[in-house]
């Protein structure tokens, strides 16, 4: 079955906490080597929903883990994850949704305890084939591709598992004969944990696809006085600044778009680069404000 949507009939909130959908885990594979420890364990989890959960790449689904949250004594709250598959799912049969999940660990400032496994992400990362999963959603209308994407230019920026939505978006774009240009800036800590790297590498055969990786713990930022980064690490915003001529030419096109997805706070490092690009191309006011006002900037960070 093929799900076809225009922006007028985007599926939203078909399932809620009160009325969720129960899916079945059909695949859970590691996307990374574990050479850098459990923090870099990222999983691609495929859940079968039997054609009951229509969605678009760029939307998110909620996951409610079973049981009671020991911190609150109440049922677990839902956690949102971006869809990491095309709308027809990884198997093309319209029956599955895929998620990209990193094992999360957190530090408790009150107790001083460090490296506490995050409940929901570890639950998802440990799912086995056949395990049931309670889902809500889909949610989100703003991180979608526009209906008329075919000839537009796009700048996609991801940190870590924020790559999830671009996997489905890029596949759908190229399958639909995309004729604009698309940049993918992808920031990860190490060269052997570049999620879905082989898939993105295959798109290099398209001369309108530009794939740029920022490997923060292996490359140094050569321009820290211009684009400062933590401990002079190589971040996506540095690579973007290095490409500012090409990006400026693209952003000068009135229908080009910028998407940011990943770590909360990444926008603080990227917006100044967009401002610099705008200024170099003669934009007098805030370029970020202009992009927002023209609905050409989409941000999904959490
Ligand atoms: P991560 O490994 O902690 O970070 C990814 C890369 O971003 C690293 O190279 C990191 O560098 C770099 N980075 C850190 N701070 C940055 C900044 N201010 N600007 C630019 N780059 C920066 O990422 P993760 O653990 O995968 O976490 C991804 C985030 O995406 C999570 O917060 C998650 O909630 C969110 N998210 C996930 C999904 C999903 O579907 N799973 C969807 C949307 C958003 P260093 O660590 O070397 O400093």
Please describe what this structure looks like.
The chain is of the alpha/beta class and 302 residues long. The chain folds into 2 domains: 7-138, Translation factors (Elongation Factor Tu (Ef-tu), domain 3, Beta Barrel); 149-301, Rossmann fold (3-Layer(aba) Sandwich), CATH 3.40.50.80. The chain is built from 7 helices and 15 strands. The strands form 4 sheets. It has a 6-stranded antiparallel sheet with strand order 6-3-10-1-2-7, covered by helices on one side. A 5-stranded parallel sheet has the order 13-12-11-14-15, with helices on both faces. A two-stranded antiparallel ribbon has the order 4-5. Helix 4 (236-242) packs parallel to helix 6 and helix 5 (244-251) packs across helix 6. The two termini are 32 Å apart. The mean pLDDT is 94. Bound molecules: NADP nicotinamide-adenine-dinucleotide phosphate. NADP nicotinamide-adenine-dinucleotide phosphate binds next to strand 6, strand 7, strand 12, helix 4 and strand 14.
How many β-strands, per DSSP?
Answer: 15
What is the share of helical residues? Answer: 10-25%
CATH superfamily of the largest domain: Nucleotide-binding domain of ferredoxin-NADP reductase (FNR) module
Tally of alpha and pi helices:
7
The hetero molecules present are:
NADP nicotinamide-adenine-dinucleotide phosphate
